[in-house]
Design goal:
The protein is an all-alpha fold. It contains 40 helices and five strands.
């Protein structure tokens, strides 16, 4: 018991650990469902391991009865014999009695009583006595009757049936209960203890409630039980144990053979699933291969334990607990909070996305804000219970728990960014752009269909992208760690953290405050800290030096930044990604970007001497920014003659290379999946939920899975809505083009999700989709735009939702709750965002014009407008992905996930991912405040050298060009078609 208490973080204080376990209970209306699930779990466990034969009739004929309210008050635990008698609070009971009953019958404590009373316990026992030798009376003695059921408690404990610390405490509570009953029964009949002393013994040594202990003592001494009845449990069980060793283990049948066969089968599955797994240590992969190859029993069992009892991935073990406290996730409170925060978040983000520069309220902000709101709710809202259509519910089901918190985060996750379709809608509806308003119907159909199709695809493909343990989805680690830190404020064991004992909660608070304070320096006070181009500051007017060392439009050969924004700006938080991702990024950056760009630029390729070396800006042949309006004809279509009269399009070397690398990465993802994962994909297609024995998959198996047909119906309906969108309105997109966009997204879903789930690198179709659309629908810019939205966002939503499914998998949120909360949140957010967009377009004067006085210039909508005409502008909407962002990301990642992980492993295990959450939180909170307090009202930044002169270099002003053309002259080819 003490060991299990230590595993839960309570040290030797097993009483407190037991109190925590008692609070893991289900709603009263779920009691009978829980009994059914626990019975099914026990039957599957013993039959899978061939531990006992359970006839189908015995499995199908057990009954459930309700214990009388009077009896529940003195003995609230589930009872039974050949059936099970369930405790169930009634309206006549006081609140204290109701809570005693609920706390005494939570899942961890009931996990033993259910199989004790049913299968393979008393119900199987009485079934065989009634089925065979029916002319005999049932053999009634506690040594046989109770010994049989207690024997199964002992044998299942030995086989590792409890699994989690919570379940261990639940089983050990009953083990102590049996022992204490023997002690007080013998002492009482020997005259060595009074009834009051018996009660105290059960309370102090067994953790019983006093009312329960009194009822147990009363029924033990009312004359129904003989003096040795209590000892019969233990003596009978030990006799069965002895018979098992004497008969089963000596030759008639050896269960170990079956167990070893099961272990060998598990190792084979594990070996197949992890044979090319980059996130496993080499020693682990070698051990799997050797065990699978040699068939050595001891090695097989040892390897199986390493992979089955907890996640084999050190990253996952550091961020996700291999337990399930079985709190209630589906509460009215979670739904209300989720919808409120989704409304506020999606509405504000939509509004702010129309301004330049934009700021986004990210999910970590919602994760932080909802916690104090949930805790406050639990303290002040009445806990009165209501019943509607026979379903009990309450506005306050108890303490705000981690699963409710996760449900709100899941709802916010899928909606925190504005819908991608709104960029296209802004390009269509804004007066300075296309000025085509197709109405609310088009906007809602377009947005809902494009957002929801990806959810359906992700759900249908979850057996490939979510269930496998190998897809660890590192992006979730900061969320899981922060959730645990907020709900568990216990200190860290200094022996396991290189001497650090501060709780992760306090560490997070301190580091977030530090990150918040620090960002005022690179964000406001000394903006030169963001891109620390000291070489360019020394030689601000040397084009070559600015091209090589500049951090804005150069190659940043000495990458220095003190701004966390630049570190996480493009590839996300480096502390979450595995080391091989950092190394691959550095190698790829060096070979395919820096060396190649230098080669292109300094050999004169693609007129590079007349262009900056690295920028997403497109140029004409006078070195001015390319003016899209000069090549537009009637109806905002591409005019070839105007194009010939104006200029070809010129791209900087790195930008041109970026397109090639984007195509290559997408094609490589398919090749990689086919070469390394094709057999695994086929294996998972055939095995469905019968995955390798991952601890988190096993813990989730107790919850009902969302059926595939739910996702299939969602996919079909949303595809139908999309088809209605393109056919019912002048979309310029033919029906076959629409289906091509969906097929394109579906084809890349498994490869891109596998890469994101393993490496934390996200791939997108935002480059390839407008190219294909431009070839398929030349002269139809609106069709190009809509094609791009469907293909790009369907894949993006499939990746996002797959990541959220893994988050709910890690946090043990029932799959059906995850399905409904995210579908409802997504559809609701679509209505909110369309309403906010239309309100903004109709209310703010001059919105989406280039000189709008409050900077509501609709930057993403204008980019969409431009790229729908000139398909090579497709990447200009991306964040500034300079070499500085890539190199600083990789260097920081290697510092934490390679150096600190090896040198201070204990610290890394306990604090690495909470560090990531804290740095991101401090930055985001400060960014929002800076935006609202300084940027939005137009407050002038401090004017001094660190904010002025550092931005007067050729690199910062986009003028790092080695050759310039005189006014009236051009560069490039003399003719172009």
């Amino acid at each position: 018991m003490i060991k299990a208490s230590q595993e839960l973080g309570f040290g030797d204080d097993w009483h407190t650990a037991l109190e925590k376990v008692k609070n893991i209970y289900v709603e009263p209306g779920q009691q009978t469902y829980m009994v059914h699930e626990l019975a099914k779990e026990a039957v599957e466990y013993v039959t899978k391991r061939d531990m006992v034969t359970i006839p189908s009739v015995a499995n199908e004929t057990w009954r459930t009865f309700m214990m009388s309210p009077e009896r529940q008050k003195v003995n609230p635990f589930f009872l039974g014999g050949d059936s099970i008698i369930v405790s169930y609070p009634t309206s006549t009971m006081s609140y204290e009695d109701k809570m005693m009953i609920m706390r005494g019958n939570g899942r961890p404590l009931s996990r033993s009583t259910v199989f004790h009373e049913l299968l393979p316990g008393h119900h199987l026992q009485f079934y065989y006595m009634d089925r065979y030798r029916t002319y005999r009376r049932p053999f009634k003695t506690p040594f046989w009757t109770e010994g049989w059921a207690f024997y199964w408690e002992m044998i299942l404990w030995d086989r590792g049936f409890p699994g989690t610390p919570e379940n261990k405490i639940g089983m050990l509570f009953w083990r102590m209960h049996r022992c204490l009953r023997i002690i007080f029964s013998l002492k009482f009949h020997l005259g060595q203890i009074t009834p009051e002393g018996c009660i105290n013994l059960l309370v102090e040594k067994g953790g019983h409630e006093r009312a329960t202990a009194e009822g147990e003592v009363r029924r033990s001494f009312n004359g129904d039980y003989p003096p040795l009845y209590q000892a019969g449990y233990m003596l009978g069980a030990l006799q069965f144990y002895s018979l098992r060793r004497e008969i089963v283990d000596t030759g008639i049948k050896k269960p170990e053979v079956t167990v070893n066969a099961q272990a060998f089968q598990d190792v084979r599955k594990l070996s197949k699933a992890h044979q090319t797994d980059p996130n496993l240590l080499d020693d682990q992969v070698d051990a799997l291969r050797e065990a699978n190859k040699t068939g050595d029993t001891e090695k097989i069992i040892e390897v199986e334990k390493q992979f089955v009892n907890d996640s084999p991935y050190e990253n996952v073990r550091a961020a996700v607990r291999p337990t399930d406290n079985e709190e209630i996730a589906n509460t009215l409170r979670a739904w209300i909070l989720g919808l409120i925060f989704v409304t506020v978040e999606s509405g504000i983000n939509m509004f702010l996305s129309m301004r330049s520069p934009a700021v986004t309220i990210q999910t970590v902000v919602i994760l932080l804000l909802v916690y104090p709101v949930g805790v406050f709710w639990a303290k002040v809202v009445p806990s009165r219970q209501f019943t509607t259509f026979g379903i009990p519910w309450s506005l306050n089901p108890g303490p705000f728990n981690i699963k409710e918190h996760t449900v709100v985060v899941l709802m916010a996750n899928v909606t925190y960014g504005y819908a991608y379709s709104t960029d296209a809608l802004l390009a269509l509806q804004a007066e300075p752009l296309y000025n085509i308003n197709m109405g609310w119907g088009f906007s809602l159909l377009f947005t809902i269909s494009s957002q929801v199709i990806g959810i359906g695809i992700a759900g249908l493909f979850r057996r490939f992208n979510v269930w496998p343990a190998a897809l660890i989805w590192p992006a979730n680690f900061s969320s899981t760690t922060l959730l645990y830190a907020l709900h568990d404020k216990s200190k860290t064991d200094p022996e396991k953290a290189n001497g650090w004992s501060i709780s992760r909660y306090r560490y997070y608070i301190y580091l977030t405050a530090g990150a918040f304070a620090w960002y005022w320096f690179p964000g406001v006070i000394w903006q030169g800290l963001s891109v620390f181009d000291f070489v360019c500051w020394i030689r601000p007017n040397n084009a070559t030096i600015n091209q090589l060392f500049g951090g804005f439009t150069g190659l940043s050969l000495i990458p220095i930044t003190f701004d966390w924004t630049y570190v996480i700006g493009y590839l996300g938080d480096p502390l979450l990604s595995p080391t091989f991702s950092h190394l691959n990024t550095l190698i790829g950056l060096g070979i395919f970007v820096i060396i190649t760009c230098i080669g292109i630029s300094y050999t004169g390729g693609i007129y590079s001497a007349y262009l900056p070396i690295n920028t997403s800006t497109t140029f004409d042949n006078t070195q001015a920014e390319y003016d899209v309006t000069k090549i537009l004809g009637p109806g905002h279509t591409f005019d070839v003659e105007k194009y010939k009269a104006y200029s070809p399009l010129f791209l900087a070397p790195c930008f041109a290379l970026n397109y090639g690398l984007s195509f290559a990465s997408l094609l490589a993802s398919i090749v990689h999946t086919v070469v390394f994962h094709s057999s695994e994909v086929w294996y998972r297609f055939r095995t469905a939920q019968k995955q390798e024995p991952d601890i988190h998959m096993r813990l989730m198996s107790k919850y009902r899975e969302a059926p595939d047909w739910w996702y299939l119906v969602l996919f079909i309906v949303s595809v139908g809505l999309g088809l209605a969108t393109v056919l019912g309105y002048p979309s310029q997109l033919p029906w076959w083009g629409y289906f091509v966009s969906i097929i394109l997204a579906v084809a890349f879903t498994i490869p891109c999700c596998m890469i994101l789930g393993i490496t934390n690198i996200m791939l997108s179709l935002n480059v390839i989709s407008p190219f294909l659309a431009g070839f398929m629908f030349p002269g139809h810019p609106i069709g190009v735009m809509i094609f791009k939205v469907y293909s790009t966002i369907v894949l993006g939503q499939a990746q996002t939702y797959s990541q959220d499914l893994k988050l709910s998998h890690y946090m043990k949120v029932p799959p059906r709750i995850t399905f409904w909360c995210q579908v409802v949140a997504t559809i609701w957010a679509c209505f909110v965002q369309i309403a906010v967009m239309n309100w903004t377009l109709g209310t703010i004067p001059g919105v989406c014009t280039a000189l709008q006085k409050n900077s509501f210039t609709c930057p993403n909508g204008r980019t969409f407008f431009s790229s729908s005409i000139v398909m090579l502008g497709a990447m200009s909407w991306l964040p500034p992905a300079t070499p500085l962002s890539f190199s600083s990301w990789a260097i920081v990642g290697l510092t934490f996930n390679w150096y600190l992980r090896r040198r201070y492993h204990g610290w890394w295990t306990n604090y690495n991912y909470i560090t990531a959450a804290a740095l991101d939180s401090g930055l985001i909170i400060c960014t929002i405040i800076v935006f609202l307090a300084i940027l939005l009202p137009g407050v002038t930044m401090p004017q001094w050298w660190g904010n002025v002169k550092v931005f007067e270099t050729m690199d910062a002003t986009l003028t790092a060009i080695r050759k310039t053309v005189a006014p009236g002259e051009t560069f490039g080819p003399k003719t172009w078609d």
